[in-house]
Amino acid sequence: MARGRAAGYDDQREQILQQAAALFARQGYAATSMNEVAQACGLSKPAIYHYFRDKYALLFEICNTHLTRLLALEQAAKQSALQTPGVDAEQSLRQLIASFVEEYALSAHAHRVLTESVRYLQGDDLQQVLNKERALVAGFSATLAQIRPDLDEAGLSKAISMLLFGMMNWMFTWLRSDGALDQEAMAQLVADLFLGGIGEVKTPSLKAEKKLAQI
To answer: For the domain that residue 128 is a member of, what is the CATH number?
Structure first.
């Protein structure tokens, strides 16, 4: 009879992924060793290999898991919109933006690894990650097409959705966690700017303006 996994296996595996993501985000994937991952987890190097065959496997799992969570958020938002009377496409897109910005904050290390280290993936692994990224863009494009069908007909919905991801994806490079604007406020700003242009952006408080000036 095959021996089952020990109790706590999944929790330990998740801890390893979190520690590896933090190291990859802080030091870079190429500059991080499996010894450092093991030390951060309080485990021996052979113990790490019990969960992941090598550093590359860690990278793929971090990227793939992060994207899987984002796809689940996208599907959940769409289901919620379908089940909630009166929710139009613009409200649905605003909810999507808020959900993604929040997830980016909660999974900041994994998100940074995805954006900065995906280039190290190869072959089928890279293709799987790219397919999930394309599925995310397609989901946003479909919602945008409901708001502006003419943009979809002109073949612009995907390009405009990519611009939206550009605003959200790289926020981590400049947004300070101790600043006056939190993730919820930033999601609102992104949605206002994307859907209404600069004229629809609400003026932040004076405190927030001073914080922004320090960025």
So the answer is: 1.10.357.10
